[in-house]
């Protein structure tokens, strides 16, 4: 029980560090005064690295046998074209989500983005109820409701009495901020649906999560 608890806390700590560092580094890379890179290039490199990591983890699961890795990939991907096509839905949504994150962090600061992006908890809960028939307790619904209120307060504009006139520069900044908020909202919806849909796929068969 102690080992299980320790693993849980370690996993939580790693997740927090990964999420925080991702947002901060991504925001910095989009605002630093240098030549901008293409988000599609960064996403392609990230997916390539994730593919290598997944193959490595499958290799560990198959007693470190290259032949078994090839057999697993052939069995689960090439011999199951219908199941592979089903994974195209969450894959496409995650690709859209990743591109939207680059857009959002180009126009929003890291703190605002991090708070607003927590709406994915609400969308995930809603999709879990409708797609997986999960039951959510009243206290959990209340927590999600408070989360939605908190995000709304972050998005809600604060009037500036000292500058009532909306200059062209202020208007452009406001439009960019709204574009960032819209990107976060759409990203939260795609994240919630893709996560629940992927969970539904995993529950239909014994396929390794790394494949």
TrEMBL record:
<keyword id="KW-0812">Transmembrane</keyword>
<keyword id="KW-0472">Membrane</keyword>
<protein>
    <recommendedName>
        <fullName>UDP-N-acetylglucosamine transporter</fullName>
    </recommendedName>
</protein>
<dbReference type="GO" id="GO:0000139">
    <property type="term" value="C:Golgi membrane"/>
</dbReference>
<dbReference type="GO" id="GO:0015165">
    <property type="term" value="F:pyrimidine nucleotide-sugar transmembrane transporter activity"/>
</dbReference>
<feature type="transmembrane region" description="Helical">
    <location>
        <begin position="7"/>
        <end position="28"/>
    </location>
</feature>
<feature type="transmembrane region" description="Helical">
    <location>
        <begin position="139"/>
        <end position="158"/>
    </location>
</feature>
<dbReference type="InterPro" id="IPR007271">
    <property type="entry name" value="Nuc_sug_transpt"/>
</dbReference>
<dbReference type="InterPro" id="IPR037185">
    <property type="entry name" value="EmrE-like"/>
</dbReference>
<dbReference type="Pfam" id="PF04142">
    <property type="entry name" value="Nuc_sug_transp"/>
</dbReference>
<feature type="transmembrane region" description="Helical">
    <location>
        <begin position="40"/>
        <end position="60"/>
    </location>
</feature>
<keyword id="KW-1133">Transmembrane helix</keyword>
<feature type="transmembrane region" description="Helical">
    <location>
        <begin position="178"/>
        <end position="198"/>
    </location>
</feature>
<keyword id="KW-0813">Transport</keyword>
<comment type="similarity">
    <text>Belongs to the nucleotide-sugar transporter family. SLC35A subfamily.</text>
</comment>
<keyword id="KW-0762">Sugar transport</keyword>
């Amino acid at each position: 029980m102690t080992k299980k608890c320790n693993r849980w806390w370690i996993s939580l700590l790693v997740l927090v560090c990964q999420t925080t560092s991702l947002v901060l580094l991504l925001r910095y890379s989009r605002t630093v005064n240098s030549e901008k890179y293409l988000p599609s290039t960064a996403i392609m490199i990230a997916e390539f690295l994730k593919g290598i990591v997944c193959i490595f983890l499958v290799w560990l699961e198959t007693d470190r046998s290259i032949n078994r890795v090839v057999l697993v990939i052939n069995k689960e991907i090439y011999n199951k074209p219908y199941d592979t096509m089903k994974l195209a839905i969450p894959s496409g949504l995650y690709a859209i989500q990743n591109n939207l994150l680059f857009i959002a962090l180009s126009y929003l600061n890291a703190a605002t983005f991090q708070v607003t992006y927590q709406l994915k908890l609400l969308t995930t809960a809603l999709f879990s109820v409708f797609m997986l028939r999960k039951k959510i307790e009243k206290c959990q619904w209340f927590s999600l409701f408070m989360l939605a209120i908190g995000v709304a307060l972050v998005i809600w504009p604060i009037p500036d009495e000292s500058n009532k006139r909306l200059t062209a520069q202020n208007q452009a900044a406001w439009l960019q901020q709204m574009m960032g908020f819209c990107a976060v909202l759409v990203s939260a919806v795609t994240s919630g649906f893709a996560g629940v849909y992927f969970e539904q796929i995993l529950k239909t068969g014994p396929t390794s999560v790394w494949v």
